[in-house]
């Protein structure tokens, strides 16, 4: 029940010691402020990491070949393994039910690309239509490679925005021909990539055209896959691990590689890679929680010490209350009310200041691995619970001490 006299006592006690109450409140407010800012920073790190993995298709698995390191079936170690169309076709057929997107890739790291008087050295790749999704690129003009281009060995190419700016300046490149290592290709599209200029300095062409135009036969550099989506991360991780083990076993068997040779077939699993970053981010956020809570505890200790002083100052008053029949619970309640009131008001001030800072300053702080620091409703609710709990803990021990004071001893206090 609301007791106006109790609140009058609290405000009267606070007004008598304004500076002491203010400094105590500052210590609590700063603890909450630091905790929320640190949690917001942790969320900013998580957002940044998630954004980086959005730059490529989620769950992408890349496969490539290297040299053998073990002797197997009479074949010496050190053999260069060359992946071919048959490796890609066999893999795609065996794991067809698990694969959502797929492409083989043939990469040429440096090619002389020219248009008119302009030229430059750029990377070009033979790919399939799904590669646009796998790279998470966006067509900003024209179109990307399609199945007809592959089937008919069309000499067409999609160029990155950086290539377009270097070679064509302000001209529209669609329909114009460029020379790629002295072979004419018609530009059918311009793409942009969220990962930036490095990816936009590439050129993509049909895999079949690339192999035929540059005498590669059926050779490929590697393969890329995206698996069917799962309901949660743990299922996706288990699926990707099973797939990577299966495809390595398949390719080792086909290319006569020792089953225990871990170097001949290289596999990059972005789902597993993401787990490492998420685990690191979790440890960072737990550390932030620890630092913030320790700061709050320091503030709570300050409040508790102040309440001990208050109890000492009001010893005679407490003795009179008990002599007149006040119960221990009413004494404890009186001290707790003041403690909780001070910590809650100060904590709300710190919480509000931190949320305003994150709201207005947070969006301005952007980097590759740090984006939009924020605190969600659940965290704000948790800090509110911490505030009330901290106030109760700060006042409990002084209140318990006050409740144990004997009236005859309190009345003799000077």
List keywords for this structure.
414 residues, alpha+beta, six-stranded mixed β-barrel, 10 strands, 55% helix, elongated, MacB_PCD, transmembrane helix, membrane
What is the fold's blueprint, element by element?
Elements: H1 4-16, H2 18-54, E1 60-65, H3 85-94, E2 99-115, E3 118-127, H4 131-134, E4 138-142, H5 147-151, E5 156-160, H6 161-168, E6 177-180, E7 183-192, H7 197-200, E8 202-206, H8 207-213, E9 222-227, H9 233-254, E10 265-269, H10 270-313, H11 315-323, H12 328-360, H13 377-403, H14 407-412
Membrane topology: Multi-pass membrane protein
InterPro entries: ABC3_permease_C (IPR003838), MacB_PCD (IPR025857), Macrolide_Exporter_MacB (IPR050250)
Family: Belongs to the ABC-4 integral membrane protein family.
General description of the model:
- The protein has two domains: 4-52 and 276-412, no CATH class; 60-270, no CATH class.
- Helix content is 55%, strand content 18%.
- It has helices spanning 4-16, 18-54, 85-94, 131-134, 147-151, 161-168, 197-200, 207-213, 233-254, 270-313, 315-323, 328-360, 377-403, 407-412; strands at 60-65, 99-115, 118-127, 138-142, 156-160, 177-180, 183-192, 202-206, 222-227, 265-269.
- The longest helix has 44 residues, at 270-313.
- It is elongated and about 105 Å long.
- The relative contact order is 0.18.
- The model has no long low-confidence stretch (mean pLDDT 81).
- The chain crosses the membrane at residues 21-42, 287-311, 331-357, 377-397.
- Keywords: Cell membrane, Membrane, Transmembrane, Transmembrane helix.
- Residues 21-239 form the MacB-like periplasmic core domain.
């Amino acid at each position: 029940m609301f007791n106006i006299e109790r609140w009058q006592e609290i405000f009267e006690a606070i007004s008598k010691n304004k500076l002491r109450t203010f400094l105590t409140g500052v210590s609590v407010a700063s603890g909450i402020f630091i905790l929320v800012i640190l949690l917001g920073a942790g969320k900013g790190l998580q957002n940044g990491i998630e954004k980086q993995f959005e730059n490529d298709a989620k769950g992408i698995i890349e496969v490539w070949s290297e040299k053998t390191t073990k002797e197997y079936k009479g074949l010496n170690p050190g053999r260069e393994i060359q992946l071919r169309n048959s490796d890609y076709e066999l893999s795609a057929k065996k794991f067809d039910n698990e694969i959502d997107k797929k492409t083989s890739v043939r990469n040429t790291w440096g090619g002389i690309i020219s248009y008119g008087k302009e030229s430059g050295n750029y990377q070009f790749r033979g790919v399939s239509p799904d590669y646009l999704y796998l790279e998470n690129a966006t067509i900003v003009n024209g179109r990307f490679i399609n199945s007809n281009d592959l089937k008919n060995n069309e000499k067409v190419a999609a160029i990155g925005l950086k290539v377009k700016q270097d070679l064509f300046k302000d001209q529209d490149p669609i329909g114009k021909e460029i020379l790629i290592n002295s072979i004419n290709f018609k530009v059918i599209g311009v793409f942009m990539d969220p990962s930036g200029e490095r990816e936009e300095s590439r050129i993509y062409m049909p895999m079949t055209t690339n192999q035929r135009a540059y005498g590669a036969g059926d050779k490929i550099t590697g393969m890329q896959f995206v698996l069917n989506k799962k309901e949660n991360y743990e299922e996706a991780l288990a699926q990707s691990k099973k797939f990577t083990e299966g495809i390595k076993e398949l390719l080792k068997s086909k290319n006569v590689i020792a089953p225990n040779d871990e170097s001949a077939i290289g596999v990059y699993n972005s789902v597993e890679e993401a787990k490492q970053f998420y685990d690191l981010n979790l440890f960072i956020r737990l550390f932030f929680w620890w630092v913030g809570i320790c700061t709050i505890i320091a503030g709570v200790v300050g409040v508790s010490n102040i309440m001990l002083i208050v109890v000492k100052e009001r010893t005679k008053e407490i003795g009179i209350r008990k002599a007149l029949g006040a119960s221990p619970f009413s004494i404890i309640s009186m001290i707790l009310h003041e403690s909780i009131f001070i910590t809650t008001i100060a904590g709300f001030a710190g919480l509000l200041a931190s949320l305003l800072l994150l709201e207005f300053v947070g969006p301005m702080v952007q980097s590759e691995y740090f984006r939009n620091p924020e605190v969600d409703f659940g965290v704000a609710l948790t800090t509110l619970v911490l505030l009330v709990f901290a106030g109760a803990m700060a006042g409990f021990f002084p209140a318990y001490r006050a409740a144990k004071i004997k009236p005859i001893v309190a009345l003799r206090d000077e």
